[in-house]
Records
---
Amino acid sequence: MSSNTGALLDVDFLVVGGGLAGLTVAFVLAESGHRVRVIEKRGLGVPAGGIRVPPNVSKLLAQWVPREELLRIGTLCAGTPLRHLEDGEHVGFLHWKADIMRELGGDFLLMHHEDLHRLLYTLATSAGVRVDFNTEVVAVHQGTEQVPNPSVSLLNGEVVTADFLIGADGPRSIVRKAVLGREDNAEPSFLTVYTTTIPGEKMREDPEMRRWLDSDDWPIWMGNNRSICAHPVRGHKDFGLHIYSWEGDVDPLAGEETWEDLVPVDTLDYSTHAPIVQKLLSFAPHLIRTRLMRRPEYEDDSSDEGSRWSDHTSRIVLIGESAHPWQPGGTHPVSIALEDAALFGTLFSRLTSWSQLPSFLAAYQELREERCAVVKASDIKNARMVAMPLGPGRDARDVDMRKSSADEWDEGTTKENFEEMAWVFGYVATDEADEWWVNWGRYSQEARGGEKHTSFSWQMVSMMSEPATTVTHDLPY
Ligand SMILES: Cc1cc2nc3c(=O)[nH]c(=O)nc-3n(C[C@H](O)[C@H](O)[C@H](O)COP(=O)(O)OP(=O)(O)OC[C@H]3O[C@@H](n4cnc5c(N)ncnc54)[C@H](O)[C@@H]3O)c2cc1C
């Protein structure tokens, strides 16, 4: 048994899914002395695009790697120019001021999915995690009262058993089915997202495109039921781009909930877009098509059915998009998934007895669920706002954006925006876990004296962890 931070119970963790959440949780758990194996059906270097890494997650990464390493693979985001997709007309500008971001504890970085994936893989394997790529889980089996250990069946026929199973297998999670005890009720939704990485080599040959590649901005082009966001990736070597096609645009039912569906660029008609957008897309090698699915039970507050993150044996848990599927290509799915992973891993670095499992799992969900729901709803709302159909609503939005362009914020607006930003970006997932332990976890352990789990008031925990500022309106991004 080894322990860096006091995980006194030596546990075999099996993580299904070696994406960003899976590798992060594996790393944090291995660092605290647990044994961890990750099973991932694909590998490194698969097609992907740009991701946003805001301060709430860059500060976690900076605990694990030097900031210089993050700045090598990421670009410090300066601001978001807001333009019309049809003609490129400038509508507004949102500053991501570096000093404000630093005040909130981190950097706002623009990265490529693959670079972060490789970084987390290196961290996890250096901490002793075993990662099996090209290995698919085809079934998940819960333990029994006599033998509580969960297991999984692999496509190659092998069965792997562990002490504890983590489902980090994304929105179409096979582990979620075991947790919920039924099939996933996913229905097609109203958003298809197309992602691509444009080779910088080609862009460099054109002065206008070179300007975008070298810029530190994250521009958004706002169209009629369609929007495009783009930014430099791989330290200005390439350019990542997402196209969001909402109901009312071309084919609202196109695509599946996967990052494996490559389609030709001319799947979309972009001939009416601003010339720079047309030029950018003409250099794209292909599009990765994915879509948002609806899960009605997740939206029904009166049912805890859809929002159960661990199973009744307390040996299987969900993190990242397997717990809460997100809008593809959103601003926050990566940061929220990594927060889940870091918080869960930090909690479980305190594990000294099997009897702690129910309280640790309840704490994990209690600490994460509300934050996930608030940030997710705001992510979708903001994405919808920049793709409003032509009409008076869109005109009013433009007037508002022109007025509240960051330079013109008065003191009141700045304060309000800062408070909202502070709630999202100021969060430190590892501190949340430590705070829970100091305020609650260790007392329940002392009261228990290593015996049976003592329950305590979750309502109290929830009150204690209420954000300083309650977010009652849309976030400014
Ligand atoms: C290949 C890929 C590329 C992406 N590119 C982008 C991007 O460019 N921009 C962006 O904003 N977001 C992208 N995302 C989504 C982004 O990673 C997530 O929104 C966020 O990081 C949450 O991550 P997650 O680890 O919870 O889920 P995911 O990122 O979906 O990771 C889940 C992992 O589980 C694996 N898996 C699923 N089922 C099984 C199984 N049965 N057996 C074994 N392994 C399994 C998947 O292959 C995947 O690697 C991408 C996701 C993937 C998988």
---
Amino acid sequence: MWLTFLCAVCLLPGSLALPLPKEAGGMNEEQWKQAQDYLKRFYPYDSKSKDMNSLEVKLKMMQKFFGLPVTGILNSRIIIIMRRPRCGIPDVPENPQGPKWTSSVVTYRIASYTRDLPRFQVDQIVAKAFQMWGKVIPLNFRKVERGIADIILRFAVGVHGDPYPFDGPGNTLAHAFFPGPGLGGDAHFDDDETWTDGRGRGINFLYTATHELGHSLGLPHSSNPKSVMYPTYMNENSEDFQLSWDDIRSIQKLYGNIYYFK
Ligand SMILES: [Zn+2]
Ligand SMILES: [Zn+2]
């Protein structure tokens, strides 16, 4: 009887899959697999829970972050968010109060460029992104052409010398490292995206650079959709935008208010 049952299973490839856990919420296997990868990648830390590897805990963290009902069960609203292009940095940082730069002048260098925009325009946009932050905090940014710099920006594809390979068009757009030596402060942009100056189809480089430089200065992600530090790309198709009050408050909490220092 038992043997007959086994053979029946063998004849039906694909039917051997284990039933999905309740957290999968009736989604299919493919969706559940993608959701697990996403949760492990963007919700790797949890200081409050002892069960850091539980997918249910991670799913609840994500639902809380995005202001959804905290059920611990996957649903289509979460899957829609998971499919948006986004920043590669986790939404919950390892240390809520991250490091910051301690000198008043921070240097940067653009080590490689994209072919999507003229070089001078990349320089202009990066300078503008720094100024978004620089005009509200007592830090000055100075571009250097070669050698060592605090923040090194570059465009790269696929595996590019750090543990976080890029993934082709869509999904992860860029990532950056919190302030520190070596890779610390550096910002990398996936050159498999189409970068724009805010016009036409593609990813707005000013918006993305401002977001990544927020990390380079020490900011984590914000769950306020108006914040430039919101983790998913909001298809900000404009040549100009402003920091939200949330962004200004967060960066001034780290570095102080410019009016008191200058
Ligand atoms: Zn980010
Ligand atoms: Zn990188």
---
Amino acid sequence: CAACGACVQACPARHSIQNGQHIYDRAGCNGCGTCAEACLFGALELAGYEMTIGEVMDTVRRDAPFYRGVGGLTITGGEPTLQADFATALAAAARAEGISVCVETCGYCPEHALLTLAAYTDLFLFDIKETDAARHKAYTGVDPALIIANLRALDAAGQATMLRCPIIPGFNDRLEHMEGIANIANTLSHARGIELMPYHPLGQGKAERFGLTPNKSLPEHAMPRKDVEALLTYLQTRTDVPVKVG
Ligand code: SF4
Ligand code: SF4
């Protein structure tokens, strides 16, 4: 930021220059983006904007030559089921044009939202963050019972899933958790695979950009490769579902 003050002129209610420093007050910001347009130094960025189904599909169609029969539309977030009606309409529109649809979800949502979406979805990328219920509650704030019930409901409906498992050193990089993941995968009929997703610290910088306080309890560095390999190797001995590192 060059402290030029252009954003202050664009939106004096939210921006100010104090002691030569740019101050941004997020409270009450309606996300119109006028200040970001006024900033010639690229210091402000509008993250997220509203689109219609037609506008999203225009973008999806532009990428169609790259799909080559294996790619398609991935609806992710945030959490797509928080906008379940939009996500379902978008998936239906893509399917109607023969574009395959993948949905990434944390699974913590009403069952009907997932099952409705499933009618137009080829694959769910389904988060499994922690298989110990007490730890899951402590780390995420919610009980995992609904998440697991939703995963089983999708499986019972014949829906293909890929279990996506973020691994964070000091939190869930335990063999018992790998055992828990295997136990879940082994009871599913349509699990296509398990993807271990080792921690990296890039999210910390992203949190700062959104005005959030970075979580100091998280590691500063990416997870060492040898630690990832050890968990991968163990998990592969506990299940026949294909496991890979994402
Ligand atoms: S954020 Fe951009 S427009 Fe605002 S003071 Fe800094 S450089 Fe100028
Ligand atoms: S996005 Fe709009 S409301 Fe928010 S700070 Fe910028 S100009 Fe003001």
